[in-house]
Amino acid sequence: MDICAVVMAAGNGTRMKSVHSKVVHQVAGKPIVQWVADALCEAGCSEQVYIVGDKQEEIRDVLGEGVAYVFQEQRLGTGHAVMQAAPFLEGRDGYVIVLPGDSPMVSAETICKALNKMEDGDYAAVVITAKADDPTGYGRLVRDDEGNVLRIVEHKDASEEELKICEINSSMYVFKTSLLLSALGRLSAQNAQKEYYLTDTIGILISDGYTVGSVICDFEDTLGVNDRMQLMQACKIMNRRIINKHMRNGVQILDENSTWIHSAVEIGRDTIILPGTTLMGNTVIGEECIIGENTRLDGVEVGDGTVIDYSVATSCIIGSDCRIGPFSHIRPETRINDHVTIGAYVEVKNSTIDDYTRARHLTYIGDSTVGKNVNFGCGTVTCNFDGQDKVGCVIEDNVFIGGNSNILSSVVLGKDSYIAAGSTITSDVPAMGLGIGRAKQINKDDWVTKKNRLRGANYIKLDSKRSEV
Ligand code: UD1
Ligand code: CA
After folding, report:
1. Domains recognised in the chain with CATH numbers
2. Is the CB of 59 under 6 A from ligand 1?
3. I want to staple 371 with a disulfide (CB 3.0 to 4.6 A). Which of 17, 310, 327, 397 is the partner?
4. Distance from residue 224's CA to the centre of ligand 1 (Å)
5. Cα dihedral sign for 226, 229, 232, 238?
6. Residue (of 274, 307, 265, 314) closest to 289 by Cα position
7. Shortest CA distance to 86 belongs to which of 49, 117, 40, 60?
């Protein structure tokens, strides 16, 4: 059977008040139109044509060259949109699935249900419908006394009686391709919106003597994103579905309202996701980790048993049994191996950090290669920027760096060496050696008495003076 799809995505999306095409806005980290394309592929329909308008470049950027595009010059309605695909549809004798590009919740299951219904009965088309608590704004499905589909009436054209109908048109259909083409040719724009309604093809096919079937799906699955409120609603519903999927797979999630997980994220069993956590992009988390509270991981690979607390990490790899945070910032191109500790106010960028290394507080590691079991004293800075280029340093295994040290570009700290606290290290330190790079301390005996600088005795006097001020 020849099955293809036409997706309507040329609308201006005026109600979104956005400079971008409505259908490229993201739901759970994936553009709305990509959700539609994926559902079609999952339903076995890879031959897809997209009706696009002025912002077509954005849609092409999302979907790429694997699908076809037709430009709709003027937006004269959904019927007019599908008409633009006529050259693509002519001569085909199978089915065409028609979907709106703005309905991210559409599922492959629903599409397959409609395709199966087409195959089982002798239908010219199958309309996917849903029961809405509040059908305001939607097209309504008008049936006869026996429940047969008669036509679809748009909200703005509906009579008092028709407005009471709660079964809505999802704007998702399967048609016999040749019959759709014949009905499209007979559409008129004589209606409240002066548009060519795709919905009118149903009434036309019925008056031609054909039957139209329907499948009813969950109202949530039909949700169209027309404005920012509906976008938020779609994001929430999708997020809840994703969270439920992870919980079914053995992930513990404490709060579905403050946890946001993108669709591509993978999480291992017995991992706990604490409130305020956002997991984005292609993040993959192993088993028995604790992530959060208030942590954002975007495109991060995390091993097993790692704890990440109040931290932000982007496009990096964090190994197993690591302790990250609170308040760590792990930036792109970083690879942290196993049993590593990255603590408070530590930033790591484009660096490799090997097993058992610890940077517990106030440290910056940039563009550097760090070996195993290195200890970064509080306040260590790799001075990776000379004003022109970014070049880090090499710190070999077991190096001990005393607090508040600066390690300059290109320097190599040899295996098992020590760096004295407060050093600025400008040249290599040999293995097993000690590097000290600071001014030598001088002590002046009894300087306080000689200079009459004793502070303790004057403390109360000073303090009362202060309060007078
Ligand atoms: C449409 C249906 C309505 C249904 C509702 C479900 C019609 C006439 N009405 O109304 O019965 O209940 O969807 O959400 O079909 N588009 C184009 N070119 C155009 C006009 C629209 O490509 O000239 C695209 C839009 O980008 C959008 C889709 O078609 O993705 C639907 O258009 P929209 O204006 O959102 O239709 P609704 O008013 O929601
Ligand atoms: Ca819509």
Report:
1. 2-222 (3.90.550.10), 251-438 (2.160.10.10)
2. no
3. 397
4. 9
5. negative
6. 307
7. 49
